[in-house]
Amino acid sequence: MAVDMEKIRKVHWVPLESNPDMLNDFARKVGLPSDFEFMDVFSTDPELLIMVPPERLAVTLLYQCSSNIRKFKEEQQKRIEAEGQKLSSELVYLKQYVGNACGTIACIHSIGNNSQVMGISEESPIGKFLTTIKSKTPQDAGLALVDATDMHSASEASAQGGQTAAPEATADVDAHFICFVEKDGDLYELDGNKAFPINHGPVGGDLLEAAAQVIKANFMEQDPESVNFNMMALVRS
Predict the structure, then answer these.
(1) Annotated catalytic, 152?
(2) How does DSSP assign 44-69, residue by residue?
(3) Residue in 107, 109, 152, 176 annotated catalytic
(4) Cα Rg, the chain, nearest whole Å
(5) Residue ranges of the chain with pLDDT lower than 70?
(6) What is the pLDDT of residues 2-31, one digit of tens each?
(7) Distance between CA atoms of 203 and 183, rounded to whole angstroms?
(8) Pick the catalytic residue: 102, 109, 179, 200?
(9) Three-state DSSP class for 131?
(10) Dihedral class, residue 200 (left if φ above 0, else alpha if ψ from -120 to 50, else beta)
(11) What's the pLDDT at 227?
């Protein structure tokens, strides 16, 4: 199937803020059950992570793009392409083609990879979208989001209700959302702008602690002068 990349380059959504109220508003609109929610994670310190409820299903990270992190990303890709990695066939993963939709995609990755645990209805907007992209390649799944009007409408409505004035959809935003989930006992980093999911190895029993260690080593320590990191966890409330 031919892809109209000129059309794709013109598709931009208003970005979601990295705050629990906004992510929960969007997630509820598309089908997140009431007994699950996104909440702030204030530190990577294990002693403070215990403040987060014990059933942690996903972790999101918002960080500011920088030359240090881009360099690390390039080196990481080269290493994985040379060495290979194990990827679960059960992963829900889509490439990002919609401009400024990284927050929306992080939510989709968080919910989509836990849909059975959370009992996501197949008739909900995200349930229908997950059915649409089932068995599709990450590229085709990302392209499907371009025409997912229910998801777009929910994302736009939520983005307008933030704590700060929402930027224009075409604004050049230098912050990026990603997501961490567990599949088959391994911790996966899901970033629609990377070449593929990243398998960070065994979770070791605690998704949040494992994700926090990766975030600290692969993001915070790569850009030690930056304070622009924001973590949230999807939990059973």
Answers:
(1) no
(2) S-HHHHTTS-S-EEEEEEEEE--HHH
(3) 176
(4) 17
(5) 1-11, 161-173
(6) 455 555 555 677 778 879 999 999 999 999
(7) 9
(8) 102
(9) helix
(10) alpha
(11) 85
